[in-house]
Design a protein that fits this description.
Length: 443
Amino acid sequence: MKSFRTLKPALLRRELLAASRGRSYSRSFALCATTTTTTQRLRVNNVRHYSSQKSASVGGDGLKVDIAGAKKRESLPYFWLRDNCRCASCINQDTRQRNFNTFAIPADIKPSNVSSTSEGVFVKWSDGHESQYDWDFIQHYVKEDKRDRSVTHDQHYWGAEIASNQPTVSYNDVMNSEQGVAELTAKIQKYGFSFIDSTPHHDPDLTRQVLERIAFIRLTHYGGFYDFIPDLAMADTAYTNLALPAHTDNTYFTDPSGLQAFHLLSHTPPPGVSAETAQGGASLLVDGFNAARVLKKEDPKAYEILTKVRLPWHASGNAGITITPDKLYPVLEVDGETGELNRVRWNNDDRGVVPFGEGYTPEEWYGAARKWDEILRRGESEFWVQLTPGRVLVFDNWRVMHGRSAFEGIRRICGAYINRDDWISRWRNTNFDRKKVLNSVIG
Ligand SMILES: [Fe+2]
Ligand SMILES: [Zn+2]
């Protein structure tokens, strides 16, 4: 796709409109209709039937819209329409920001003319401004209240069986093409994780670079990109790292990291232990959305409790730092409107005191959390995988929980966090056309 910034405004407008209609710009017309062409079409308070299915006309307090099918409203408010003019003088075509003061427009603004064609609706306003709206926009808001912002469609929930069909992309594809980034982010969106195979492991900086193809790395009080080698003095002892049950990271942040990545660069067994017999510290992944679905099916009350009871979470291990979210958060956060699960927050070690007065007793919460914990530990929920050098694991920290078994020897692991908003932006922009992306974020 051409860079929008290199195009002249008029051409840009036509490009955008053409892109929005999925055809060449030669057939399209300027977004804000010119006086000549508009006046030819306009008649005072009339309706021009260019299409038998849809038309618009001046109504009492809004634009009357006549279209086929079920409607939520008969008309669209004038002031709302004027505020949503997308013409080149109202919207900066580079930044898509509003270019005018909404509140300088008279609250009682009305059209002096309305006309419609098969392309869209033209409105000439009482203050002389001229606007044009695509039918897609008009129809959407006659039939719906808002744009669908959900990003959880088309998700594939999984259990242990994902071991035989592991989402994977190649390092070269991600490094060398936007299509590779599209594929990586689409797999993470669908499955909650993906491997990046054939990543060089002689230099952790190459892992950092492949992760930065998604978005910049998040800084936290632990630092940014990390490359961890245990103290080599430990190699002389039978150094064992403990198992970690499935959890999400950053439960103590208002906005927990969206992605987390691990790359095992090397694993050296302890002295006297062969690489084959050393405990390798297998990694554990559990699909939290799948586990929540199982919980809801088997014990709807427990699911309800985990979505309703809000808890304190904290990180207090570093001197002078105590981090806690802006408010209490439940384990399972659902969208208040759609009821769709949006985020899992689960690390029993970072959890604070179960409060009273949350609509359920602490005993009820413990009962629900016990059931949740039991589902997470079922063999059918767990995907165990041995990380190997060259295979980067990237997962959605709002959905997929991670853990590991005990390991011996020295593991050198590098990795990073990436913000949720930034990776979802990258997913949108590499997987969907500009029109769809703008509709979903602007409305
Ligand atoms: Fe962790
Ligand atoms: Zn305008």
